[in-house]
Amino acid sequence: MTGYMGKLLRVDLSAGKVWPEPLNLAYARDYVGGSGLAARYAFDLLGAETAPLGPDNPLIFMTGPVVGTAMPSAGRFSVCARSPLTRLWGESNSGGFWGPELRFAGFDGIIVTGKSETPVWLSIIEGQAELHSAADLWGLDSYDTQTRVRDLLAEPKARVACIGPAGEKLSAMAAVMNDHGRAAGRTGMGAVMGSKNLKAIAVHGKAKVPLADPDGLRAVVKEITEGLEEDMSAMSIRLAGTAGYVDMALMYGDAPLRYYQQAEWDDAGGLSGVLMTEEFLNRGVACYRCPIVCGRETRAPNYGLDQVDGPEYETIMAFGGLMMVGDIEAVIYAGHLCNLYGLDTISTGCTIALACELFERGLLTAEQTGGLEVRYGDALTAHRLIEMIGRREGFGDLLADGSQALAEKLSVPELAVTVNRLEVPMHDPRAFSGMAVTYVLSSRGACHMQGDMYMVDTGQGPAIELGVLPGDRFDNSEEKGRISALSQAWRNLYNAMTLCQFQNPGPDRVLQALNAITGWDLALEELMVLGKRIVTLKRLLNLRLGLTRADEVMPELLQQPLCGGSEGNVPNVEALLAGAYAEYGWDLATGAPTPDTVTDLNLESLGS
Amino acid sequence: MAIKFPSDEWIKELSSRLNASEAYEKSAKNWEGDFMFVSEPDALYPETVYLFLGLYHGKSPEAMLVSSLEEKPAGYVIRAPFGTWRKVVEGKIDPIQGMMTRQLKLSGNMMMVMRYPKAAKEIMNCVSTIETDFGD
Fold first, then answer.
1. What is the dihedral of CA A224, A228, A231, A237, to 10 degrees?
2. Which end of chain A is more exposed for a tag (fewer CB within 10 A), N or C?
3. Cβ neighbours of residue A502 under 8 Å, at least 6 residues apart?
């Protein structure tokens, strides 16, 4: 067996037991790794009755075959469970070094079930796993937790994934943090970890990932690395991080302003990633073996901080454009607070911005907020609210469950800009119609990492050989919907391998690397079969968890045309979905895969 | 009357239209950096052509066809075969998409280019208003 360490660690926190079990190689061959493989394991463990914050909800940390190899930008891992935010399949992934280090410690993944009676943390060092009391760690922020765990282990090279106070308080927006400020942010995986009384997982080891064809991998890695020198997208990310996209996003109308309701704003120029680079950047920060270096370390002198992780594009727009804060330093600080408390910056920023909108409409009053005036442009109040969310204090307790819960509490569910209860990220589907498919069909709710037509239609990372073709961003045809589905399947394979989506050497080179690592003899067209199988598995899981076709709608506010960069475009969701459904082989009436699709994708064993 | 591309007359016309554009002036008010558009030979047009476009603070002070890069050094150089330029001028290739997909090759200070995508869009808006003769 090559490409895998061949073992999972099982953890039953109710019994206080840990044990290794062999990796199911048939599952690995069909679902690769990352969130694909995690979904396959979850399919055996999750039922409609499984409570997201109950002990039976399996919390799965999973790497993929490329992780920890010489493949560039392969430092990621997935965290998966039933989501307390969406109540559907939840997955999130993060970069840094933790994923590779888990493999060096001897495991491809970890499945955690049960609930510890008291807080614990888990160490996995050189193949040996052990649970420890976390009584002294409970209450610490995510940075102090990582430092303290390394001290307790007396192992400065250990990599730590953990929750902050928000995870302990079961905020549905809580993240799993790792490697300082890296976050598996979306869908509330930090709350699932908190519900199990699991504060942290430290990993360290020296094992190597077994490779089928080391020379073949070396050769393709050389080609990939050389190719990056001509990759304009990678070049711009290296220069200014993902924040470098801010100006382009504003030009396209992709960057949402004033809770998705404003097209242009003169002060938005202050959020430019180029300006941030010139005025607040300390250095670029890379994940494991990544030559792109998208990570940023910045400073915020007005807040007494000389070292801050981030912010990246999503954080900048969530705490900047969405709530009309044009002060990039205030945005840097907002991102820092989220890192400390262990909160997803997208969901947190969106929820506070929604509170601004509701306050402005008179639907939320100072009486309900504990006296706080929650206004657009007020960065200080936004900072205060992040801390209140992290501690579930006062009005923060209501915000801690996310945008949809807030809107429902105030009897205006239609005003929450969510799809399947997950906050829409900072890519407006009115600027790139294909994103409507991405959001509506994403297995975890609105997500730009489950397909990225905003990248495809700006020429960044298209997979031409697989039919993921750049085109007219306002195209609302079934054909565009079909291409969006292909993009989604391709990115689901990325999230299974688990390869960073900024590394786009083209399907041929990805295929060469995957075959060299695993010893598989995959053909190019099989890549898309893998991607579609993974998407369809997650669809089956979500149908079991209660998803219906009626849930596949765009939020009302995103159906209002805007002038500016999106030029009045509103995606024709039905036409786009018709194309996507046809490409996936799903029944447009029921939302389920057709019997032929089940057969074609070898999914019969999963039952009806 | 259509203006031949690539030619001195065509680049001067673009310069003139940029100077008349309030949208361009606003979007590029702090821009500093001249462009050289290099049309490389292909089956449709066998010669290399250099079009210089001066750009400064929202205006285009000069523009001309030159014989080499050295004749009029520019901070930014964009290269593509004639056939690709034709598609850009006709609006069939978005210039940003073209650069990202390596159909257009840019050299120069990338950080500045990333700061002013709207100016690039306004230039393309002006290009689209020029009736162009590609020698068909």
1. 120
2. C
3. A73, A233, A234, A237, A292, A294, A461
CA distance A163 to chain B (A): 36
Instruction: Quote the percentage of chain A above a pLDDT of 90.
Output: 96
Overall residue count recorded for chain B in this entry: 136
Q: Say what the ipTM of the complex is.
A: 0.82
| B9-44 core/surface letters (b: 16 or more CB in 10 A; e: else) | ebbbbbbebbeebeebbebbeebebbbbbbbbeeee
State how far residue A239 is from chain B, nearest Cα, in angstroms: 7
Query: Are residue A383 and residue A249 in the same domain, yes or no?
Result: yes
Return the pLDDT at A1. Answer: 83
A555 touches chain B (CB under 8 A): no
CATH architecture assigned to B3-128: 2-Layer Sandwich (3.30)
Chain center to CA of A484: 18
Residue among A230, A274, A460 minimizing CB distance to B115: A274
Q: What is the DSSP string of A356-414?
A: HHHHHTTSS-TTTTTS----TT-HHHHHHHHHHHHHT-TTHHHHTT-HHHHHHHTT-GG
Angle at A170 between CA A351 and CA A80, to 5 degrees: 90
- Distance (Å, rounded) from C-alpha A291 to C-alpha A407? 42
Q: What's the pTM value of the predicted model, to 2 decimals?
A: 0.95
| pLDDT at A538 > cutoff 90 | yes
CB-based contact A327:A379 (threshold 8 Å): yes
* Residue A247 and residue A195 share a domain: no
Q: How many Å lie between the alpha carbon of B99 and the closest alpha carbon of chain A?
A: 7
Structural domains of chain A, count: 3
What letter represents residue A409's amino acid?
K
